[in-house]
User: Fold these one by one.
Assistant:
Number 1:
Amino acid sequence: MKVICSREGFLSACQLVSVAVAVREVKPILRNLKAVAAGDRFTLMATDLELGIRHELRGLKVDEDGEAILPAGKLLSILRESTDTDLLIDASEAQVMVRGQVNEFEMPSENPADFPDIPTFSDEHYHEMTAGALRLMIKRTVFAAAKESTKFAMTGVLWEVEGKHLRLVATDSKRLALATGPITSHEAAETKGHSHLVPTKAMQLLERHLQSLPEDEKVRVSLRPNEVLFQTDTTTIYSRLVEGRYPPYKEIFPKKVNAKIPLPVLPFLTAVRQAAIMTDEEAKRVTFHFAKNLLTMEAQGPTSGRSKVPLAIEYDGPAIDIIFDPQYLTEMLRVLEESAPLELHLVDGSRPALFKSGPDYSYLVMTMV
């Protein structure tokens, strides 16, 4: 296999695909990328057997068709450090040669036939939505997924398709993010009653890929019983699903609220961050005092000191005091646009608080006592 490629373009592609490279010792060959050159197509692949990706590069010059195994770690280092505009990749089963104008790097290779196959998107029945809408939904939910799985916390994002709407849900048991968006069905069934829980790593890889696409590019989604596939014009991402049923999240949303308080996203984020300066690991809490037209945030650590930060708000209801872990608020506020509407729904100072940004985004967060 011989290919002449742009160093920057090849580096970006390798960085994307390398997300799926195995970090655990499953099979030694999974520490590598597989490359396939055929005609005017050059495809990179990686998998850890749970997550896999096929990514096609455009605009390369293929001098010789073939397949090869590329050492992921060393190749990325070469591409980062090289100063060449273009590079020649000359690879066989025995070795991989990377040549620039002056420098030359030679690495051992392996038999590409030993690399496991990655499922392809061949479904005739699938769901479809735009890259921009899906990217926004992932951004607004994936940060709330749990790092470790428990009874009420899941290490992934739930996908629910009902009619023309997709819901993405993520929770770590202390907060829950819910985003809704439009989706088109191409003779694909609804997912109501089924838990399609996509691992966080797969969601992050998909979001990273979507960042490079036009807002209106179509993304195909195939939700299968134990796995999911996403397909764009250049790329297919495969992932096994997280096992287990998702907790009944709809039951925890408040049925009735006593206060609805509009909040400006950027000023609120700034004020929360300022108040949080005086928190520490032992006292990671900020008290929010809601009064007429004024929100006052206060924090005090055993040794760090005290903060008091006021923020003018549009509120004419009863006084309410509520305590939050500021990190849970700042992480949510960072995924909202500065101009996005934001409204806080409160029952009282002891029950979970609901932040809503328009009809399509809800963020429920537990209070502290």
Number 2:
Amino acid sequence: MNKFDSIRPYEDSEVEEVLSSLCSNINVIRALLDSADNSLMSLLPFKEKIISLYLKHKTKNITSIHEYQNLFESIVSKVVSQSIDNLSVSGLENLDKNKGYLFISNHRDITLDSALLNLKLHQNGFQTTNNAVGNNLMNEKWASDLMRLNKSFIIDRSDKSKKDIYKSLNLASEFICNSILNKTESVWIAQKQGRSKDGIDYTDPTVLKMIHLSKRKLLSIDKCFNDLNVVPVSISYEKDPNDLLKTRELYLTSINTSYEKEPREDLISIADGIKGKKGNVHLSIGKKMVFVSDSYDDIASQITNEIKSSYRIHSTNIAACMIQGKDIPNHSFSNEEVDNAMQYLKERMHTMQDDMHSFYLNQYSNSIL
């Protein structure tokens, strides 16, 4: 038994069995029905059986992770064509196809941030990444199976004893370091736990501490992160399909000091993020970073600055600043583009009470301040 078995992505030998189980899973079938563009699908007799047979037909020749990712690429490409006006990427020339990298990214969408990066990597001949996901997304086995088929590994932050939490985080650290240093496989991880719901992108030093955990007695902090080939990634969405849900969470947290997620809320966010219109989306891939400070805080600040400086500004960011009376950075958008963005934001704000507006607009304005 491999010590990483409890957290690692699935391997080729496991693909057929996992796919067979997923094709018959009623939760997977219902998720597909819920996300179907054609509502007539729900009226079909024996619709669950029909979809199950369709899934089995679609996946019958898939026997490896690579083949599964080819299928996944076609799915993500369809998402891009249906929900994104233009997906652009910069910085691919900074990467070497023979190296493994630690991609540290800002985080806006639960699944698409890493999926869109991997789409561009795959399309340009690079190996896709192993993706760090919190165990809160793994509560439903079928969701866990789908993610682990797509090269996700688990970082367990659940409530346990301090000893158990330490062991879990140390194992995740070992997996990350082993992937990059020994297997030359890249890893994607968000710069902080959870999505940035307020538009403020910052790197949490505790994430860096977790990554360094298994090497802390062997390597200094700067040596460890220099060896891991850290590359900052900044993703920017012109429109966030989950902005209203994020606004509600921020507002309720501000008045109640706590926020309890509804059952399946993360799965709903995933579906909305995939289906919702996103306007233009840009991925900025930075250069391999060099660190000279043996301080988690200093390295976190350095990564934060790189991610923020490479963030691609959209017209919605400018419009949000104008509505709030905040300083407006230099930009090249026409008056018409800014007016259209302002109208879009105001139409969204009409659906909420006035004291929620600042929470909504901050998601767009804070990104560029």
Number 3:
Amino acid sequence: MVEVIRVEALDDPHIAIFRHIPDPVRLRELGAFVAEGRFAVRKLIADPRFRVQALLVTPAALESLKDADGLAEDAPPVYVASRTLIKEIGGYDFHQGCLGLADRPQPERLTALLDRLDRRRPIVILEQVSNPDNVGGIFRNAAAFGAAAVLLSPGCCDPLYRKAIRTSIGTSLQVPFAGVDDWPGGLAAIRRRDYDLVALTPKVDATCLERYVFFEDGRSVALMLGNEGDGLSFDALEAADGSVRISLGPTVDSLNVATTTAIVLHHIRSLSEACAQPDGESSSPDGRSPSR
């Protein structure tokens, strides 16, 4: 049965931990993270991997969540407050009157994650992508186009940061992720598991996306992307097995990193669908293997 408690004051002790929400560093020190918005909170409470500490919602948000999976049994306490009070607590008004506070899960070890992934699906590796809108957008694209996981170098935005969760529409709660703490040395561990490291770069000597052969010799694909300011570092480019560029018009020199991720993941998925043969084998669209 859901325990519903009415909250009318900012200093109510029931919601003490929610007052740390505007400070992501402090919230992380407390071993917690917050999801905001009804869509993301639905995903949070429905996923058994997360222990939800409490919900802070408006009456309207509570009504919209009544049929949500995970709210019927062993439900967390639900604190109901006005939208104005929730804005005072949360610091922003993007929450749709709905906040979910949960225990931060233990970070997954890179090698353990790689060992359980479906190798037929690409993975995405990010280097120094610190913008939460970009990280959230990349997770959204990963979910939309079938990437198996997202890996992050030091310096990337936390996928469980509230804005990243919001921008991802909750998919950063679903798509597996892990940190590559040893950077760029950890890229070798990924290659040893039969992944080709494919650098996305606007450099003119990179292979055009349409001509690059993905999954060559049965190897899996790890797409590497850097931030918009600097792109991939020299060390990351040196570690790559190949490099790919997207052909652009003469007035544009590069694309947003999340947009680039979407285009390449969609291309890979389209190839997989178009090239699948009845016996499960695949080939390039023209039956040949274009050079890299």
Number 4:
Amino acid sequence: MITIKLLGGAKKSFGTDLVSADLDNKTIQNLLDYLLSIKPKNTLELDTKNILVAVNGVDSSALQGPDTNLRPGDTVSIIPIIHGGSRMQFKIVDRHVELFSVSHQKNENYEFLDSIRKKFPDLVLEGISSKCILGPRHAKKIIGLSLYAEKHKLFLSKKLQTDILLRFASTTQISLAIKTVGIDKNNDFTIIAIGKKSSLERLYKYVSPYLSSPQYIKNSKHMRRLFKISKSHISAAFSKTPLEDILVERAAVLIK
């Protein structure tokens, strides 16, 4: 018997936060098909393309993805990721998240982020080099891992923002994470902001004059070199987004 935990919007789709199913030795894809088959009518749709699936606390992308086999007694968590609008906004479970791509601030990137932290103390804020993000989906998955770690007390650090930084860098060493993916004084950077929607709106209005158009699509070569991911690593990953999935897998299996 498999236990399925439904979080956020998934709970609203089924009217419960817990489902048990006889899916021993089946795959995650079989489980998703089963959930869609039993979903009540006239409830929130379950978008299986925008969810994180964790098996016993481990993101399925760090296992075999949809082909991951389930064993008796497994607990599977379904965590929706909802996005929308032209801005890079989304929800993970019940947390509002937004990415802000900020133009280089003439050697004052650190000071700029610090000033925002002081002005918006109710938001969780972290800065990541814009060269170290493959796109919104990559960011969503990494942030989702950190939010899952927060909920289940699996933090790599004492603070959510630091856990996010560490997972983007695939390391448990803060100094190495800052050196690898942290903001630097000469390049654009991305602010990851988590908090109430009203606060995110105020932040958006404040930083609007400083925003740039992110070129995340160009970062693959840099990321492969930075994390020493070879062509053989890429070819061995059975995925439509192999680099992204390799990075998320490394982030998911980090243990302090």
